[in-house]
From TrEMBL:
It comes from Hyaloscypha bicolor E. Residues 289-327 are annotated as: Disordered. This is PQ loop repeat protein-like protein. The keyword Chaperone does not apply. The chain crosses the membrane at residues 23-41, 61-81, 101-125, 146-169, 175-195, 207-226, 238-261.
């Protein structure tokens, strides 16, 4: 036990010396990343609230993202280097302490913002719609599914907190191993987090309540954030910054798909009437899977850009003005 205490004392001493000579470039970058995390999640929060539904967001994406974020936050909290930084706050100045803990704050804010998405997903979960797989089979995402996801996330968070607290009080020399387990778990969950969302978005043919502006900010931000944490924690902190390197790659794939669907839907809306319109509809009404084209809200487009959600009685549209396609 004295051996491990000696190691922690040496680690704390070296970390305190490092905090007393902060890199102002890294400090500025860390502050920008922290603000960027907050700003990047706002479009997603707003989109769910504005649409009044979380349709288009996979419950398994929410489940994996929340549990991955919980593991990542717990990982950086129990990491020996992070605990040494917290201990150094007793000896260094307030500015140096705050600068040294920005890495922890970044992961904590990211976990909190994704937890807000979980809450909004639950509150605005659509009660009726299903996700069609083909003409004869449907996969049901019910209110029970959403509640189960929230319950599992809560149980997982409590289990991580209890285990971490128990190790801190009784087996502190095992915290390094526990931190690596949390980091590996977070990386694995993050690696598969986007797979159900990619699958769901592909089969829907539109992004639904998923925010493209959020992904536009977060995809490059993940790589910058990963580099910043790597510079702060070093190679021994791979289990922390590796999470965001993986998520950046997968989120980039989802972003590319979302942009493709948005561009395709906008081109379909720009079709003009007449023969040119007819050819345009033929080109864009069929997706790559042979499915009818949808707009960015999930409605199926018809000849003049209307969809099945458009009211039948609309003053700006008269059936007598509908052109008859010429053969």
């Amino acid at each position: 036990m004295d051996f491990f205490k000696g190691l922690m004392t040496d680690l704390a001493s070296s970390r305190c010396e490092k905090l007393q000579a902060p890199s102002y470039l890294n400090l500025t970058l860390s502050i920008l990343i922290l603000l960027g995390i907050l700003v990047s999640y706002l479009p997603q929060h707003y989109r769910i609230i504005a649409r009044g539904t979380s349709e288009g967001i996979s419950p398994y994406f929410i489940l994996l993202g929340t549990t991955s974020g919980t593991c990542a936050f717990a990982n950086i909290l129990v990491l020996p280097a992070s605990r040494a930084d917290v201990a150094c706050c007793k000896t260094v100045s307030t500015f140096e302490c705050v600068a040294g803990l920005l890495g922890i704050a970044q992961v904590g804010v990211q976990w909190f913002c994704f937890s807000v998405i979980l809450l909004l997903f639950l509150v605005f979960f659509p009660r009726g719609p299903t996700l069609p797989i083909d003409e004869t089979e449907q996969q049901q995402y019910t209110w029970k599914t959403a509640v189960t996801v929230a319950f599992v996330c809560l149980l997982h968070g409590l289990a991580v907190i209890i285990t971490s607290a128990a190790l801190i009080m009784s087996r502190p020399h095992h915290l390094g191993t526990w931190a690596n387990i949390l980091g590996i778990t977070a990386t694995v969950l993050a690696a598969i987090q986007y797979l159900p969302q990619i699958w769901m978005t592909w089969h829907l043919g539109h992004v639904g309540s998923l925010s493209i502006p959020m992904m536009l900010i977060q995809t490059p931000g993940s790589f910058v954030w990963s580099g910043s944490l790597a510079a702060r924690l070093g190679i021994e902190g791979w289990s922390t910054w590796g999470v965001f390197l993986v998520t950046g790659c997968l989120q980039g794939c989802l972003l590319a798909m979302g942009i493709y669907f948005e561009v395709r839907a906008r081109k379909a809306k720009q079709c003009t009437e007449g023969e040119t319109h007819a050819r345009c509809v033929v080109g864009y009404m069929q997706g790559e899977n042979g499915q009818a084209e949808t707009d960015d809200e999930g409605g199926t487009l018809v000849e003049d850009g209307w969809n099945e959600r458009t009211p039948l009685l609309n003053g700006s549209r008269k059936s007598s003005q509908t052109p008859t396609p010429q053969r």
